[in-house]
Design goal:
about 425 residues, mainly alpha, two-stranded antiparallel sheet, 2 strands, about 70% helix
Length: about 425
């Protein structure tokens, strides 16, 4: 009897020992799989080969691939619910969980319920991936993976200029007079967004010591070339703002430069206002792709889009029109002579409110407040650079609250990591 008990006890100990020895390898395998998924999201799902007419929401092969990946991520999240559950009890996690449920429920009142449901699945998928990455991967691993994935994406876009120039360049429209680089992103604005994100990721990796100064120069040159060729002025301005504010937060010399630039800007405006020089309208007209001052004064038609979005929002102010289910109604709301693309509200939080109403707006806006508070109380260069680009660009683009995109995953990952890990501290500088 004693011998059998001893053998049973020894067998249990051996089984427990084997299980413990397997756990690190299982964790490593899951981390490796997670890195592969991040590569797929950053590189493969960013490629754009199909464009449907404005106002039509359908399922083509490319959207089908995205839906399969998104559904797999949601299923993965259900399997790993124990790992994700603690995040729901954090303020940011609770808000993202609420928005996820609301986005899915909004398919019941959306004019395009299946399309809204698909976009809601994508939103949930990137929340899940962001949470898993926040719990399982170090920030250096995620940043490195994103940087090199988008490096390949940008390089493929530039190579396409030589290999498939008809695909790489968007010809001038009736109003415009310049060719714009779209690479393999599907449209120039998407190419510009990826190029700007590529630049801030390179700067983020540099601040953490993941790449050197020469590598930073290479990535910045490659990204800036793509950005300028894409002609995306909105994200270029967002890039300048986030770089300037992040630099001023950490360096005294940058603050002095900011003060000098502000004074020069004030003097320039006074110069034009006094009528001493050429007309301000004539100067601004030089930045127009169409040669019309109206393009600049209306922010390439955004003021008209915002007006139409507010009108449609007032029709359903409480719960909105359904998550990203507004492409058809926005297109139909524009006047016949409108020459822009009104597939969304071209403002991140206006798009959120249009889709999920004021019920979705207030918790969604709170997410930006979390980052603003962190920027003041605990600045981290890599986080502030990336989030600043997303938030500033979100003033003129729908971004993370429209069709699920890469920046959504990055935003949710940084947000959930901020509240699920011990606060990181940036080494103090003499400023």
């Amino acid at each position: 009897m004693t011998i059998s008990i001893s053998r049973s006890y020894s067998s249990q100990r051996l089984g427990i020992g084997l299980l413990r020895s397997m756990l690190p390898s299982i964790g490593q395998q899951e981390s490796g799989f997670m890195v592969a998924v991040v590569v797929i999201v950053a590189l493969v799902l960013s490629l754009g080969f199909t464009n449907h007419p404005p106002g039509e929401a359908g399922l083509d092969w490319q959207n089908g691939v995205k839906l399969v990946v998104w559904s797999g991520l949601v299923g993965w999240g259900l399997l790993r619910w124990r790992l994700l559950a603690p995040l729901v009890f954090r303020p940011a996690g609770a808000i993202l969980a609420f928005l996820s449920v609301l986005a899915m429920l909004s398919s019941f009142w959306s004019p395009v319920p299946l399309y809204t449901m698909g976009c809601a699945i994508g939103f949930i998928a990137y929340v899940v991936l962001g949470g898993l990455a926040a719990r399982n991967l170090s920030p250096d691993t995620v940043l490195n993976t994103l940087l090199w994935s988008i490096t390949v994406f940008i390089a493929l876009g530039l190579m396409a200029i030589v290999i498939v120039p008809d695909t790489a360049w968007l010809p001038p429209s009736v109003e415009e007079n310049v060719y714009r680089l779209q690479g393999l992103a599907g449209n120039p604005n998407s190419m510009g967004h990826h190029a700007a994100l590529y630049i801030v990721l390179a700067m983020a990796c540099f601040t953490r010591g993941l790449i050197g100064l020469k590598a930073l120069g290479f990535h910045a040159a490659l990204g800036l070339t793509s950005l300028l060729l894409s002609g995306d002025r909105t994200v270029l301005l967002a890039l300048l703002l986030t770089t300037g504010l992040s630099t001023m937060r950490h360096f005294m010399w940058a603050r002095w430069c900011g003060c000098i630039l502000a004074c020069l800007l004030a003097m320039t405006l006074f110069f034009y206002a006094s009528g001493l020089g050429p007309s301000l309208r004539e100067t601004l007209q030089q930045f127009s792709r169409t040669g019309s001052i109206d393009e600049i004064m209306t922010l390439t038609g955004r003021t008209e889009i915002w007006s139409a979005a507010v009108e449609r929002l007032l029709e359903r102010p409480m719960f909105g029109w359904g998550f990203n289910g507004t492409e058809g109604i926005m297109t139909a709301s524009m006047q016949a002579g409108f020459s822009g693309t009104a597939v969304n509200a071209h403002n991140m939080y206006l798009q959120l409110t249009l889709g999920l109403g004021v019920v979705g707006f207030f918790p969604g806006f709170t997410l930006a407040i979390f980052f603003a508070r962190a920027y003041v109380k605990n600045p981290l260069p890599y986080r502030d650079l990336i989030v600043g680009l997303i938030l500033f660009n979100g003033l003129a683009e729908a971004d993370i609250f429209a069709t699920p995109v890469l920046t959504g995953f990055i935003f949710f990952w940084l947000l959930l990591r901020e509240q699920s890990q011990a606060p990181e501290r940036y080494p103090p500088r003499e400023i």
